[in-house]
Amino acid sequence: MNVKRTFGTILTILGIIGLIYVGVQFVQRSEAYRELTVVGVIGIIFFFSGIGLVRNTKDEA
After folding, report:
1. pLDDT by residue (tens digit) across 1-58?
2. Domain total for the chain?
3. Fewest 10 Å CB contacts: which of 18, 19, 22, 30?
4. Per the UniProt record, which residue ranges are transmembrane (predicted)?
């Protein structure tokens, strides 16, 4: 199994979890704006870097 592709998948899943957390807290009208901003930015970074790793890693048999 390719380590880069696995790491990319893990990063993507962590990014999705972070973005879902921010979305739920935003809908519940949480007052912790700084925390939501930090978690949202980190979630976006994880999501797009994970997608980039999965997309740019070639399959070698």
Report:
1. 688 889 999 999 999 999 999 999 999 988 888 999 999 999 999 999 999 998 988 8
2. 1
3. 30
4. 6-24, 36-54
Whole-angstrom distance, CA of residue 8 vs CA of residue 1: 12
Residue 54: phi, psi to the nearest 5?
Answer: -65, -40
What does the pLDDT read at residue 22? 94
Distances (CA, A) of 9 to 6, 16, 30, 43, 61: 5, 11, 29, 13, 19
Q: Quick check: is 31 in a domain?
A: yes
| Residue that the structure tokens 């912790």 belong to | 32
Do the Cβ atoms of 22 and 39 come closer than 8 Å?
A: yes
